[in-house]
Structures are given as C-alpha cells and as structure tokens.
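User: I'm writing a tutorial on reading structure tokens. Could you give me a worked example: one chain, its sequence, then its tokens, then a sentence or two explaining what the tokens reveal?
Assistant: Sure. Here is the example chain.
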Amino acid sequence: MNQHIEMDSVTLADLRPEQQGEILKIDSADGVFKRRMMSLGVVAGTAVTLDRSAPLGDPRIYTLMGYSLGLRNTEARQIRIRLK
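And here are its predicted structure tokens:
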C-alpha cells in the first residue's frame, strides 16, 4: 500500500493556489511534528486547499477543516497528499 501511496501522491508543498488535495500521510521522522500536525487535523482523508503564499512563497497558508494553517515549505514537504 505504501508504494501505491508514493506513486499517486505529491507533497503539500506541491499544491497550487485554489487546488485541493486529500491528506494521505505524514512522512516525518520527527514524532513531535507528526503529533502536532495530527492534533491540528492533518490526518488521512482530510481535504486541504492552498489559500495563499507569502510574497516569496514561504510560508504558505492552507485551509482545512474550516480553519487556516500556516506551514513552511520544509514542513509541507513532509505531508503526502493526493490531488483532487
């Protein structure tokens, strides 16, 4: 299954403005980051949209579960999504 996820997925950092994706998994080896993201609703099956980016593209603001979440690109690259 993990191989299938890798083939059909991109990272959250690859999302373009107004494009929507579905969270598949968090690739982070850092347990603290993974727990923090999960407590904020970044869990498998959650729909996410790129709302806007800072002028230089980092950080970016994503919308999920009715709220906005700001992430740096290094953090967003650890979250695998499937484009909708």
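What the tokens reveal: The radius of gyration is 12 Å. The chain has one domain: 3-83.
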